[in-house]
What we know:
It is built from seven helices and ten strands. By secondary structure, it is α+β, with helices and mostly antiparallel strands. It has two domains: 4-127, MutM-like, N-terminal (N-terminal domain of MutM-like DNA repair proteins), CATH 3.20.190.10; 141-264, Helicase, Ruva Protein, domain 3 (Orthogonal Bundle). The strands form three sheets. It has a four-stranded antiparallel sheet. A four-stranded antiparallel sheet has the order 2-3-4-8, with helices on both faces. Helix 1 crosses helix 7 and helix 6 packs across helix 7 (193-212). The two termini are 27 Å apart. 42% of the residues are buried. It binds a DNA duplex through residues 1-3, 33-34, 56, 70-74, 89, 105-110, 125-126, 151-153, 157, 160-162, 169-170, 218-220, 258-261.
Amino acid sequence: MPELPEVEVTRRSLAEVITGARIEAVRLGKPLRWPLGCAPSILVGQHMVALRRRGKYLLIDLDKGLLLLHLGMSGSLRFIRDQAPPGVHDHVDLVTSKGVLRLHDPRRFGALVYAANEDDAVAQKLLGGLGMEPLSETFTEAALLAGLKASRAPVKQVLLAGRLVVGVGNIYASEALFLAGIRPTVAGNLIGPIRARRLHAAIKTVLARAVELGGSTLRDFSNADGMAGHFQHEANVYGRAGAPCHRCGRAVQMIRQGQRSSYFCPGCQRP
DNA sequence: CTAACCTCCTGTTCGC
DNA sequence: TGCGAACAGGAGGTTA
């Protein structure tokens, strides 16, 4: 599932090749989560000026306006230079002067949305409520602590909500909480400065390491060059219910929180 | 306002 | 072995 590391890995593998590419045609397959929001002809003739990331969104800056692209939970982007025909799950082709940017997304939770600018209603609805970027300087221990103090919800769900800090999805929330020694059920407002400090460091460590390893490929994620990620081999708890903790040997537990599975080690993570 | 639940979708896994 | 049911989950939307 694309979380911050997978989106960032995609961005890095794509930024150089698509910058300066001129869109020559737009091919749309089955509908995605939201409609494009403009006539495809608006895009044709425009150049891709830059590729940025905000949370789990990729922002493709155009000469005029920008495209917001989300990978949902099964999406991946490829940049292909041949004219291979789209497969059943290839739902967007942006044919450019340098190659074809192709969105592959079997479950179609992803989206590609045009916005006239970053401040307009369309963009603000999607980006406006997003929290801090965890790998940036704005994400500080103090800000994390303050945000946690403001919520009585379980810390795992505060992380997943994305209003305090973005990009931490189900895999990396469980992994960060393991590194921090905090059980996912602990209420945000019960986390003090010491644990907030550990969690802050753990989030940065986990996400940076995952980016380094090309993300996690649980099923079929790959970067724009088709290369898989390897972080899943370093997971301490995610997907390891019943298996012995790498640190203490006790069985990793799985629980449900907000319709999502959470994994933790009852020995290493304190309530 | 928050928090719990629902919804979209399809490939994979599970139980009988 | 086959088949339907359950499951996985990002995140906006709805409801209480």
